[in-house]
Amino acid sequence: MNLMVVDDHEIVRDGLAMLLQQSFCIDSKKFASDGYEAIKLAEDFAADLILLDVSMPGGLDGLSTIEKLKKILPESKIVIFSMFDDIGYQKKAYDCGADGYLIKQLKKEELIESLDLILANKKVFTNQVLEEESASDSFYQLDLPISKREKEVFVLTVMGYSQKDIADKLNITVKTVENHRQKIGEKLETQKRFEWVGIAKRYNVF
């Protein structure tokens, strides 16, 4: 197996590679400190597994890097390996084409087991195995007094997406997004975004 580790901390890159070599047969490995370096490496190195952090220097974060890497290496398994256990990042990673999202706080056995599943064509997000046909819906299991479309707008708003980004993702107009937000605010009895975040937490969105 060819391995690529993308992280701006050398100790993380070396330590992770050493740990994986104890459990997987790694033929070759490459390291990158940021997204741009990873993309350049991918042009000449067919990695079977790519592990990368969410937050990296250079202006290209892990989520944006995933999309570019998938175009170069569509068959590679690309996994976010981050300290942030955040449903928002996980949803964005899934939307960008990630095969998994694992946190650095995992025990060695949990990490290896999760990677085994990912290499076996499963999608694993913080220990949850997602079935392909229902993976996207699993991020929207909200018992809120709003419609399905409003739930989608609500989740994306809480995650920090702009009105234009939401419109693009849902294939609707910005005006429609504004109308949905207005109706959501009326049903939740607040238009304040920070209160929406609190509501999302109570309903286990995060």
Spatial ordering of strands, largest sheet? 2-1-3-4-5-6-7
Averaged pLDDT: 86
How does the overall form come out from the CA principal axes?
A: elongated
How far is the N terminus from the C terminus?
Answer: 34 Å
Count of alpha/pi helices: 10
Radius of gyration: 18 Å
Structure report:
By secondary structure, the protein is of the alpha/beta class. It folds into two domains: 2-136, Rossmann fold, CATH 3.40.50; 148-202, Arc Repressor Mutant, subunit A (Orthogonal Bundle), CATH 1.10.10.10. The chain contains ten helices and seven strands. The chain has helices spanning 10-21, 35-42, 62-72, 87-96, 108-119, 135-138, 148-158, 163-170, 174-188, 193-202, and strands at 2-6, 28-32, 49-52, 77-82, 100-103, 123-125, 128-130. It has a seven-stranded mixed β-sheet, sandwiched between helices. Helix 4 (87-96) links the parallel strand 4 and strand 5. The longest helix has 15 residues, at 174-188. The model has no long low-confidence stretch (mean pLDDT 86). Keywords: DNA-binding, Phosphoprotein, Transcription, Transcription regulation.
